[in-house]
Specification:
Oligomer: single chain
Structural class: alpha/beta
Distance between the termini: 74 Å
Shape: globular
Number of strands: 15
Helix content: 40-55%
Strand content: 5-15%
Length: 571
């Protein structure tokens, strides 16, 4: 038997008066005009969204809702696309159109080296001293790359090493809170690039020297540089390059030192970039610089402007030479963008969310094209290697290791700083031979060999060679060679808590193991007695299931405390 369902006649839908405007926040003529003024000279491209947001933030002190709507219209993006990017990065602040914003924000670093130097006291004292000044806001910040000058602060766009309340107030009173104009570095004659262009040293010869030098990536992973070149070179063009200058790892400041050195700093990095681009066949290069390095940004832009004049002369001298397009991009306070695929997402004008791998960026990088990713220090070494030969670099080293390494050294030493030392040097040798020994009144208790994610090792392991692949058996790694030295009055469990809070703050939130795992770890390690089995289980889940290295390496400090300092946690 068939059941017949009667169809009711359609009912009239009640409608209001017809709309005369699109849905969503409307843009005012004033907002459009303000956006146009602040973004003058900046191409209205979606991949330049973050650069546009910086223009608005710098001009207004914050991102106003009306301006974001006008920016979306200007870039032909949805308001959601603009808002999700603006709300992702720590250095952007979104406020109502009529909200008052402070003229200056003082960011006080609360990461490990600065914490050991008393940044918590500095923070509270500054907040008390400036409480009645509505033009200033004081807030904590993750590492700002001044670990060797702790405690450090950033006053507006001016980094203030060895910060004090009086120094901050004096800077605010002067109004001089913009980037410093650093001394002009020695001009590069581009000798090694010209040898390559003239045919004196061909691409294959350069690759041979690179292999002989055993130069590895110096941003943390330590992947052989020549292998990256061969992989990208073998792919069909166009090929791109990104230079990762987003060194946000706690304890790391060597790239800032390399770039701003008065002797062959940024110019030598740029020559190395041009050599790599010529050998690999790169069409377009993006320099991605962390936002805290305002001084370096001004310096780099000046050097790029100078370089363009030099390149015009080289193209006239060598008619077949076609240098790559080079763009300087500004980060916005996201440590996760130090991960190369997250950096690439940011270069494309998106949130810095790490990509799933495979494919690797050498095959599928910026805008889907094969991409060579390098650290500036790696590029700095290229002219040196070509001038002296790959064998010259490998002739250095200790304990069976080859090469030279730059170490960022901070914490309880007499002379914190960046030191060029033989590969394979031990922590004890590094302190005694380069950092002036332990600080007065301090004896070595523990150290971080590779920044926040490299683990924490006891003084008993101070004679282990510091290099790639030498610390794995101790559950640690050298990473970006950020060495933080702790004394007898410091506690490893306090360091682990500081570092885990950093990871919790910097997790992009894309995957649950990292997003929820870092928060749970912070909760667990604040207990008087640590739940070792539960922490071990949490650590394993984060390592196995996190998308990128942040979540996979975040448990290292906690695991190190359980392994080497059980007396501190009752485990």
């Amino acid at each position: 038997m068939t059941t017949v369902i009667p169809i009711r006649p359609a009912q009239a839908v009640r409608r209001g008066p017809p709309r005369h405007t699109p849905k969503g926040r409307q843009t005012s003529p004033q907002a459009r005009e303000r956006v146009a003024v602040l973004c003058t000279g900046l191409a209205p491209r979606a991949d330049l969204l973050i650069e546009h947001l910086h223009r608005l933030q710098d001009g207004e002190g914050a991102l106003r809702h009306g301006h974001l709507a006008a920016l979306a219209e200007h870039l032909k993006l949805s308001q959601v696309e603009v808002f999700e990017v603006a709300s992702f990065y720590h250095h952007f602040e979104i406020v109502d159109d009529d909200a008052a914003v402070p003229a200056t924000v003082v960011r006080v670093c609360e990461s490990l080296s600065c914490s050991m130097a008393g940044s918590a006291t500095l923070m509270s004292d500054l907040q008390a001293a400036l409480a009645d000044d509505p033009s200033v806001r004081v807030q904590p910040a993750p590492c700002i790359g001044q670990c060797h000058r702790a405690p450090a602060a950033c006053v507006g766009q001016r980094q203030l090493p060895h910060a004090t309340v009086d120094a901050v107030q004096a800077l605010l009173k002067s109004g001089d809170t913009g980037p410093r104009d650093l001394p002009v570095p020695e001009a590069s004659e581009l000798k090694q690039l010209q040898r390559l262009l003239s045919g004196e040293s061909g691409p294959d010869a350069v690759l041979a020297e690179l292999k002989a030098s055993n130069l590895r990536g110096l941003g943390g992973a330590g992947f052989p540089a020549w292998r990256k070149w061969e992989t990208v070179r073998a792919q069909p063009g166009p090929r791109h390059m990104v230079v990762n200058i987003d060194e946000g790892e706690v304890g790391t400041f060597k790239d800032g030192h390399v770039l701003t050195s008065a002797q062959a700093g940024a110019p030598q990095v740029l020559e190395g970039l041009l050599i790599a681009a010529q050998v690999v066949g790169i069409d377009h290069v993006w320099l991605y610089l962390r936002d805290e390095y305002h001084d370096a940004r001004v310096l780099l832009q000046r050097e790029l402007d100078t370089l363009q004049v030099r390149l015009q002369a080289l193209t006239a001298q060598y008619p077949g030479y076609s240098p790559p397009v080079i763009e300087l991009r500004r980060g916005a306070g996201a440590y996760i963008c130090g991960e190369e695929s997250a950096l690439i997402e940011s270069v494309e004008g998106k949130r810095g969310l790490p990509r799933l791998k495979p494919p690797i960026v050498a095959l599928h990088g910026v805008f889907g094209r094969p991409t060579l990713a390098h650290n500036p220090e790696t590029l700095w070494w290229l002219p040196e290697i070509l001038a002296h030969g790959g064998a010259w670099l490998t002739a250095h080293g200790r304990a069976g290791r080859n090469g030279l390494r730059r170490f960022s050294v901070s914490g309880r030493v007499k002379q914190p700083g960046v030191y060029l030392a033989p590969a394979g040097i031990t922590l004890r040798e590094l302190i005694d031979e380069h950092a002036g020994g332990m600080a007065e009144g301090h004896t070595l208790y523990a150290y971080l060999p590779g920044g926040a994610s490299g683990g924490i090792l006891p003084a008993a392991l101070a004679d282990v060679p510091l290099d790639f692949d030498t610390l794995a058996e101790h559950g640690a790694f050298i990473g970006s060679m950020a060495v933080v030295v702790m004394g007898q009055q410091d506690r490893a469990r306090d360091a682990a808590l500081n570092l885990m809070r950093f990871f919790e703050h910097e997790s992009c939130g894309q995957c649950t193991p990292c997003r929820a795992g870092t928060t749970k770890a912070v909760e667990l390690i604040q207990a008087p007695v640590w739940d070792a089995p539960l922490l071990a289980e949490l650590s394993q889940v984060m390592r196995d299931a996190s998308i990128c290295g942040l979540g996979q390496a975040a448990p290292n400090p906690v695991d190190s405390v359980l392994r080497f300092f059980p007396h501190e946690v009752g485990a």
